[in-house]
Amino acid sequence: MSDSAIIVAELTVPAREAPDRAAATAAWLLEEGVIRPNDRPDPLWRPSRYDPGPAAATALADRRVDGAVGDGVDILDRRQIHDPGGNYTPPGCPRCAVPLDADAHTALILPWLDRDEPLVTCAHCGAAALLGDWTGHWAVLVADLAVRFTNWPPLGDAFLRELHTHLGPRCRLIHHLL
Q1: pLDDT tens for residues 52-100?
Q2: For residues 162 and 120, what is the distance between their CA atoms, to the nearest angstrom?
């Protein structure tokens, strides 16, 4: 099991497009050398399909890395809930930053998994926004497409911008810690 992960989830790619977009994103990451195939996957030790590649450090915020960059990369192309592990905090309103009630937020997640993304109105300022637009470092999101970097240091802004161009227009970060 991992200690941490950085998950980049794309919220607008529909399920029917997710496999093709995932394959194209994997091809780009392989071409850039950020990842390489995991030649010796192990369900307990290194379960990811991809390992950090020879140019993995180019994806990092601090490229001066001593030793291994991370444990693996998974490109996920099926609808699922992406969560922050044990560090959950409810997201804040995109206009006033007042957090959504935790119980109300939790009640919206499972229905989102089965249906469209919910529109949520802030109890404080009255602003209405899609749930994925509510901000939070430790939020919970639902997506059909995501890239999970297991035990990687922080990713660089330039790399994240480029990754977003390959995944889609509405990418969000989830920081998962056990």
Answers
A1: 999 999 999 988 776 678 889 999 999 999 999 988 999 999 999 999 9
A2: 29
- Token pair listed for 57: 């450090």
Q: What is the pLDDT of residues 37-56, one digit of tens each?
A: 999 888 777 889 999 999 99
Helices (H), the chain: 18-32, 102-114, 157-167
The residue whose two tokens read 């071409």 is 31
Q: Pick from 57, 40, 60, 58: which is nearest to 49 by CA?
A: 40
At residue 1, does pLDDT exceed 50? no
CB 96 within 8 A of CB 51: no
Q: Residue 118 — φ and ψ, nearest 5°?
A: -75, 145
- Under DSSP, the state recorded for 142 is E
Q: Quote the crossing angle between the two packed helices 157-167 and 18-32, to the nearest 10°.
A: 140
- Tell me if the pTM is above 0.90: yes
> Once rounded to an integer, what is the mean pLDDT over residues 117-129?
97
Task: Give the separation between CA 52 and CA 35, rounded to whole angstroms.
Answer: 5
Query: 149 - beta bridge partners?
Result: 6, 73
CA 27 – CA 46 distance, rounded (Å): 21
Phi and psi at residue 89, in whole multiples of 5°? -140, 145
Q: Of 61, 76, 96, 65, which Cα lies nearest the Cα of 19? A: 76
